[in-house]
Amino acid sequence: MIYKKIIMGKRIVLGFIILLVCAIEVHAQVPYYGATVGEGKVFGYHSLKVRPGINNQRTYTTLQFGINDWFSVGSDLTTGPDEKFIGYYLRVGKKFSQWFSAGIQSAPTFDLDNSHKFGYLNTGFFMNGDITKNGKLFWTTNTWHTIDKDGNNTFDQYWYLAGNIPVGKNWSFWPHIGLTHSWKFNEDPDLAAGFFWVYKKYSFYLWGNDFFKDHPRVTMAVDFTF
User: Fold this and answer.
1) What pLDDT is attached to residue 20?
2) What is the C-alpha to C-alpha distance for residues 19 and 105, in angstroms, rounded to an integer?
């Protein structure tokens, strides 16, 4: 959980979903932007998350459809060791200016290994905006609240500083670096960083977090918008 950003008048849409309706351990590190996918557009995203050295592979796949320019709906599937979840989400968001976009998403998630019973509810609040007039430097923040039927509720924050660097015709490079922490302040803050390549309506991601733990997490992903 990855959504569109307009690239210098070319209207290249990005989205991050990320993983958006997984538990906070699953979805966290890839940043989301405020605006929705756009009226009549379809957004797709697929990711593989691994922790080298241990058996902990997870996938996340989502499709989203824009009802209008500020409202979209979607569904996603999360798989991992001994778990399969399906989620259904509603999202509202708008780009108010070059300097500020905001959006909210709510996603109830259900356990496919337990008769489609309710598992948890994730709600995210996303903001982003340009820092420089040319759009090559920008910021984004994500706030996540997760209500887990069988576990502890979480309330987490993600701060990112990012760039948009054109590298050729139809290509651009988007590096991100950020700090993540719990609003409960019950654990150490974490570093998250990564980048993605944008080519026309496609994006290719390489991301990481938990760098100070024994087994950092690596995310590889691709998305598209039509």
Assistant:
1) 31
2) 12
- pTM of the predicted model, to two decimals? 0.81
Per-residue confidence band for 112, with pLDDT thresholds at 50, 70 and 90: very high
Considering only CA atoms, which of 135, 127, 72, 150 is closest in space to residue 98? 135
Domains within the chain, CATH numbers bracketed = 24-225 (2.40.160.40)
What would the pLDDT profile of 131-156 be if each residue is shown by its tens digit? 999 999 999 999 999 999 887 889 99
H helices of the chain, in order, are 24-27
**SS3 assignment, position 132:** coil
DSSP track, 66-116: ESSSSEEEEEEEEEETTEEEEEEEEEEEEEEETTEEEEEEEEEEEETTTTT
Distance from C-alpha of 21 to C-alpha of 76, rounded to nearest angstrom: 7
Whether the predicted pLDDT of 4 surpasses 50? no
The predicted structure's pLDDT at residue 29:
54
The beta strands (E) that lie in the chain are given as 42-50, 58-66, 71-80, 83-97, 100-111, 117-130, 137-148, 154-163, 165-168, 171-182, 190-199, 202-209, 217-225
